[in-house]
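> @MW can you paste both from yesterday?
MW: sure, first one:
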Amino acid sequence: MEAKQVAIVLLAAGNARRFGSDKLMADLGGAPLGICAGRTLAGVDAAAHFAVCQPKADISPHYADLGYRIVDNPRAAVGLSASLHLAVDAAAKTQAQALLIALADMPFIAASHIHALIAACDGDIMASLDGNQAMPPAIFPRATWPLLLATQGDAGARQILARARSLAAPAGSLRDIDTQDDLAASKSRPFGLDPMI
């Protein structure tokens, strides 16, 4: 598949309860943490770029500046499924033949891996592999979008990805930031950053 056939959606509406403050606005390398993945994905020449955010989120203008269309999620408390449903709704309004889902709290995703995921998508769901677990970023062909619409609660697409094909990502690039300790560790010991980012 080609990038121009893919709608990219960055999920950025989480409540960051474990972090204790607005995680996506926390400083990482002189920029908001949530912008790191946003910049990487904005560099992909996709059919569309969407960011699912809580209404009036401080991070939203930053994504808009990168060219993302902002999708407000007023039901973020429902869990990740609410954002997935909005992602599908947004992508369905485009001509995209696949939907690439990424998480805003994964600042080290590699541009080379995103391009590899897209190229590997030939009709099957493709997940990223950290060596043990299938996870986002993941790409869902249009025929599989009803599976995303059927998700409930905060588990997201975990069960779907467990059965998906997977592609190994560069070491450390799938690390997410859930706590203040995660952020501190990321600043003091950089994780396998891809030089293409």
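MW: second:
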Amino acid sequence: MKTCLPIFLVVSLLISAPAHAAFYQWTDANGVVHMTDDPRNVPKQYKGKATRIEVREPASIPREAAPEPQSAPAASAADRGAAGVTGGHDEGWWRAQFAELRSELTTVQAARSQKEQQLVELRRRRVIFQRARDRVAVNELEAQVSADDARISDLLNRIAALDLAASKAGVPLEWRQ
């Protein structure tokens, strides 16, 4: 009986179900995108509009369950990435996902700041001349800035969700840069 228990524990660790997580996403009246992992945190007025986002990843053996041999030096994060796959994806995939989202965020933020400068100039012109076309241009640019704000919020939420998934998968911090 005493020898069966350790064997059972090792087998149960090796044969585990794939891990998955669900997130809930909704957009409020101001166009801000929100995410949570607890459906009870979704406000009542947005319960019908909240969408469920499934994140599935294969289960991994906890690091404590598989200790490294004492004679070998501890493997660095780069060695772990070269030797295997973390969270169902390799180092290149994780780095590419983070880099893509961050570069798109930088691009949208730069475009938004340019539009904000144009908006200041158009508002100044509108005060001076009071032309209808200036008013229309201001309204259109305000709508574009608002759309950029919503896109920035969405990208920040996607980065946070990817970071959360990476944390759960045990992805090293240097892969998230």
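> thanks! The chain has a mean pLDDT of 74.
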